[in-house]
Structure formats: structure tokens, C-alpha cells
Amino acid sequence: MNYALMMERHPNVRYRESLQKLARIELEVSLGAIHTPAELVGWQKVGGLSLLMIRSEEPLEEEELDVLRHQSALMALFELKEDTLTPLMEGRGYYFPEDMAAILKYKGKTNETFTDFMVHTALMVSDFKNASEPLTLIDPMCGRGTALFAALRRGHNALGVDVDKKDIQELDHFVKRYLTFHGCKHQRLEENCTVPSRKGVRKITYRVSDTAEHYKAKDVRTLSAVLGDARDLAYYGVKHAHGIVCDLPYGVQHGGESRMPLGKLLAQVLPVWRRVLISGGVMALAFNRYTLKREELEGLVRDAGFSVLAGPLSDCEHWVEQAVMRDVVFAKA
């Protein structure tokens, strides 16, 4: 049996090639969640369309097809017989609309498809890829929340942390407007977290459901945002997370008041993140190879007690723009 995946086409041709590379990597690791042996064939032209192909000896079961339907950049899934493409998108669904991650535009925003690639890939290589219950994902340097929205879209709980007051305020305002506009049942809570030697660490939490019926039944998800420091992650009310997804700052400095170099900051935060990430969980860190070497980051990750994942995940380097050659390190707790 042959199956074909049609992926999003980014208007920038060079960046489109980057997304095609990442789509292949994501699909390759996702096939590990499929019980029927399936082979990744690669990109092929079918009727003038560029499609990502896989082949299996037996037809894939519905649950296995659902794994394919939830690839981050997928537009359509087909079964290919001779020259005929038959759509297989029935049943595909997400907990929350995908537009939540796409609407908010601002300078320096990470592409939402790439962010979803990190979220989905991290879950696919974790020990929780087949979990039936909602998981908890954290972005310790969340900016305005793209990774949080990607996690909520997939039906998971999310916590974001950032030192930038403007970013947290904009995240809060956007979520409030979005949920109100779409008539989503929700509750907004605000509290202060007790952090040693720090004052007034503010945490905002939205409790929300995909339907009014689920909300009434208390079947809810949480989206939280903390105006705080990534080094204090253990004090923000989440004892254990199943995944950490973070697009590290692309400049040479970060860290709020201290403005320390990124490498030094990571040496401080990574051991804290390791204590929060439950055994079997996976951390995905995107970074700019022009300002941080992969070998240095992998060393810091290992020193903090993580195991760096190899195989296809060791080659996520891709071009973004003239000043950014992005890469991703995936590491398991």
C-alpha cells in the first residue's frame, strides 16, 4: 500500500525546502508509533504534485492513519493506487482550532508550523506518544505563546514563562479576546507564585474546553502564562511536565535583568528544567547555529542530565534567513 502526504507550501522557496526537510524528519520518527511496518520513501512527483510518500505491506489501521493525519505541516493525506489519489482525511480533528497560533503577528515570531513540528515531534519520541490523557508541555521562554497554542490545539495543558512583561500582557490580552470572540467557555484565574528572593511573580491561567458540554463536565485544559524567570520554573505550580519546547533567543544575550550570555544562562536553567521534566519526557530546543554551536548546546544538555537523541533528529539544521541558521536538539529525560 502506498500513502502520500501533501504538505504546506511556504511562499519563500528556500524556506519551503527547509520545511520539507523537517516534514520528512517528523514523519520518519512518527512512523515509530505505527505498528504496521511502513517504509518512508521520500518526496516524489505524482501528477505534478510534490508528495511525501510511505509504503507498507499491509493497509494501515485507522489509528495508524490518524498518526499521519496529525503531522504538523499536513494539508492532505491520500492513498495512492496506480495514478489515483484517494483522500483519507475523514476523522482528522484537533482539540482547538489551528488559527489560534497563526493570528497573532509580531516581529521575531517563530513560524507556527515549525513550532508545531517541535511540539509534535517531541511527543512522538517521548514515552507518552500513546497517552490517552492530556499531557503537560512547558515553554520556559515563551514570548507571546505560539508553543502554548500549539499544545492546546493538540489537547494538552500548557505553561509558558517569560521575563518580558509586554509579551505576557499581549499573550493574556490575545487569549482573552480569542476565547471571547469564539464563544469558548473559559475561566481566567490570576495568582502570585511564591519564589524565594523574588517579589510578585504573576501567573495567569485559563481553564478552557473545546465544547460547552465538556466545560460543564469539568473536562478542561489549562493554558498558563507566568511573568517570571526561567531559572525559577520549579516554583510555578507544575511539578512535572511531559515535554519542554523552547525556541531559544537568537541573539547572544538573554536573561532579563542579568543580561548574561545565552550559554551561561542555559547552564543555570537546564538542571532546573531537567528536574521538572518527567522521566521519559522529551525537550526540544531550537537555536541559531550562528550564535550557539550545536556541540556546546549538546554538552550543556548532557551535563544537566538529559540524553541527546540521535538518528534523524541529529540533522534538523535548516536555513531561516541571512542571520539565522536554525537547528534543533531533542533530548530525553
Automatic annotation (TrEMBL):
Could you tell me which CDD domains the record lists for this protein? AdoMet_MTases (cd02440)
Q: Name one Pfam family in it.
A: UPF0020
Its recorded name reads Ribosomal RNA large subunit methyltransferase K/L-like methyltransferase domain-containing protein
- State the organism of origin: Gehongia tenuis
- Which residues are in the Ribosomal RNA large subunit methyltransferase K/L-like methyltransferase domain? 135-289
